[in-house]
Design brief:
Elements (H helix, E strand, L loop, with lengths): L1 H21 L16 E12 L13 E8 L2 E3 L6 E15 L4 E4 L10 E4 H5 L4 E21 L10 E21 L5 E7 L7 E10 L3 E8 L16 E10 L2
Antiparallel strand pairs: 1-2, 1-12, 2-4, 3-4, 4-7, 5-6, 7-8, 8-9, 8-10, 10-11, 11-12
């Protein structure tokens, strides 16, 4: 995970240096947003499940998402058409927190790449004090947006909105449980395995706002879990939404 973030930051810095050497950029006031013809965005929001069974209760505040994308706008139909195509690459990270102190564990009846929802206390002891119980999924993603800029003469200013999508590959999934046992010992157990998640995800996205700040939403088009291998054989798909900061 750290290596991928390092690669993205290094790539952005190299592109920034190249852009500054080849393009005469206007001066930006102190504290302003650099006018570099690329986007390094940080998305913050919530991760929810659509079409899930009632027994699969989700804690809203504990189920969060954080994405980092580097995208480059490509003008379409001329420099003043107001339309750009924005391909990119990045990392998508999601957390799911379940209600009733439950989490995912391997389902021995279905094999190693499967999951069942259990109370954490049923696995680690009835007398524990539970502090954290989440499941995290991490994806390498390729976003692609079609953006319309209301300011057709200066894409770095004015309102804009986008429709598009992204494809992601799951490179890590794990649960994390933090608790205190009856002897007062604090433990943190991280269990990395597939849990029946689909390796690929894809969906559509919408964005609207200024070049420096926008709101966004993502609607997954495929199931989060492989058929019959998730808890309660769920066919739930993801709905993510939140706000974003564009630092370039």
């Amino acid at each position: 995970m750290k290596k991928i973030y390092t690669f993205l930051i290094a790539f952005a810095l190299i592109h920034s240096t190249f852009a500054q050497e080849t393009i005469k950029l206007p001066k930006t006031p102190i504290g302003g947003r650099p006018n570099i013809p690329s986007d390094l965005v940080f998305e913050f929001g919530f991760n929810q499940l659509n079409n899930r069974p009632e027994a699969l209760g989700i804690n809203f505040l504990g189920s969060r998402t954080f994405n980092v994308y580097y995208q480059h706008p490509i003008p379409v139909g001329g420099k003043t058409s107001g339309i750009t195509i924005n391909p990119g690459i990045g990392i998508g990270t999601d957390k799911l927190a379940f209600e009733n102190d439950e989490n995912l564990f391997n389902n021995p009846l279905l094999g190693p790449e499967s999951s069942i929802l259990k109370e954490v206390a049923d696995v680690y002891g009835d007398d524990i004090v539970l502090y954290t119980n989440v499941v995290a999924t991490n994806y390498v993603e390729i976003p692609l947006d079609i953006t319309y800029h209301l300011n057709k003469t200066n894409y770095s200013k004015g309102f804009r909105f986008s429709v598009g999508g992204k494809v992601g590959y799951l490179y890590n999934a794990h649960t994390k449980n933090k608790f205190e046992d009856s002897d007062g010992l604090r433990r943190k157990i991280k269990d990395s395995q597939n849990f029946g998640f689909e390796e690929f995800r894809y969906g559509v996205s919408v964005k609207a706002g200024s070049p420096g700040f926008y709101v966004w939403g993502y609607f997954g088009l495929n199931d989060l879990f492989k058929a019959g291998l998730g808890p309660f054989a769920t066919q739930a798909n993801q709905i993510n939404f939140g706000v974003a900061i564009n630092v370039f």
